[in-house]
Amino acid sequence: MTTTEKKKRGRWKAGESGNPKGRTPGTGEVGKLRASIALHLPDIIAQLVARAREGDAQAARLLLERVLPALKPTELPVALSLPDGEGITAQGRAIVQAVAAGTLAPGQAAQLFTGLGSLARIVEIDELEKRIALLEGAKNDND
Q: Tens digits of per-residue pLDDT, 19-39?
């Protein structure tokens, strides 16, 4: 038997798994640890609650972090009219003025500037396509 025949024998075909179902979930070390903790979970929680009632700040913090999600700041939508037809620069100035006046949150302004940047790239591509079409048309007329 040649070495190439030995290498080919026992190999799976491309795209075919030797274990199509995969490993059974929960059979690894982490799964076993979670199952072990799950057995004792009611006792663990009861002890944490008892310690928190006794004044243990860490136990109280742990319970509260797991039960009550952290509050996230939210920004309410704001109606903002941007100048139309005056260009992207004028629109950017209007955003800066709205932030300075306190009618627009800085996070919202950042998102608007990202949108303006994308719009500028789109406008630039449109203009380049038109210029290329004109140049190609002029070249075809000269030929």
A: 777 777 767 888 888 888 899
Tell me the three-class secondary structure of the chain, residue by residue.
CCHHHHHHCCCCCCCCCCCCCCCCCCCCHHHHHHHHHHHHHHHHHHHHHHHHHHCCHHHHHHHHHHHCCCCCCCCCCCCCCCCCCCCHHHHHHHHHHHHHHCCCCHHHHHHHHHHHHHHHHHHHHHHHHHHHHHHHHHHHHHC
pLDDT tens track for 41-81: 899 999 999 999 999 999 999 999 888 888 887 778 888 88
Q: Assess contact for 113 and 92: CB atoms under 8 A.
A: yes
Q: What is the pTM of this model?
A: 0.47
Residues with Cβ < 8 Å from 91, sequence gap 6 or more?
Answer: 82, 83, 116
